[in-house]
Amino acid sequence: MTVAENKELVRRYFDERWNHQNYHVIDELLDPSLGIEETKAGVAAMHAAFADIKLTMEELIGEGDQVVVPWEVTGTHQGEYMGIAPSGDQVTFRGLALLRVGDSKIVSDVAFGNDLEVLLNK
Predict the structure, then answer these.
(1) pTM of the predicted model as reported, rounded to 2 decimal places
(2) How many domains does the chain have?
(3) What residues pair up with 63 in beta bridges, in sequence order?
(4) How far apart are the C-alpha atoms of 106 and 78, rounded to whole Å?
(5) What is the DSSP letter of 32?
(6) Residue 21 parent element (H or E)
(7) Among candidates 71, 62, 55, 84, which has minimal Cα distance to 113?
(8) Of the candidates 38, 42, 30, which has an alpha carbon nearest to the alpha carbon of residue 100?
């Protein structure tokens, strides 16, 4: 796949699972070795904690088979998150994800997020 195709695949993967709660995209685009059911459970837990979650992405950066996603998540803290009771507050946190694409699947997904922002956003 080209760099542009890799970036489009990753953009679709992030948008569908976070903004549209389409967990089928995880089945379609995530390599099974990365734990499809575990990934779905993690995304579902975020949607439970932040029911109105909205993920935005800045310009994706790609080279070869790798894609970097600078992202920002906003939502209302309506359910427990990382042991933190719901506050009802609007929260925002940011991060980066580094993904690698192989054979039209995401074969590596490492995310770095600042969860501390949720605690400080009270």
Answers:
(1) 0.91
(2) 1
(3) 66
(4) 30
(5) G
(6) none
(7) 71
(8) 30
Helix%, strand%, coil% for the chain, nearest 5: 35, 35, 30
Question: Are the beta carbons of 89 and 122 closer than 8 angstroms?
Answer: yes
Place of tokens 């890799």: 6
Q: Output b/e per residue, 75-101; b: 16+ Cβ within 10 A.
A: bbbbeebeeeeeeeeebebeeebebbb
Question: Per-residue pLDDT tens for 53-96?
Answer: 999 999 999 999 999 999 999 999 999 988 888 989 898 889 99
d(CA 34, CA 106) in angstroms, rounded, equals: 9
Amino acid identity of residue 106, one-letter, is I
Q: What is the CATH number of the domain that holds 72?
A: 3.10.450.50
- At 119, list the tokens: 């605690």
- Expressed as residue numbers, the domain containing 19 is 3-120
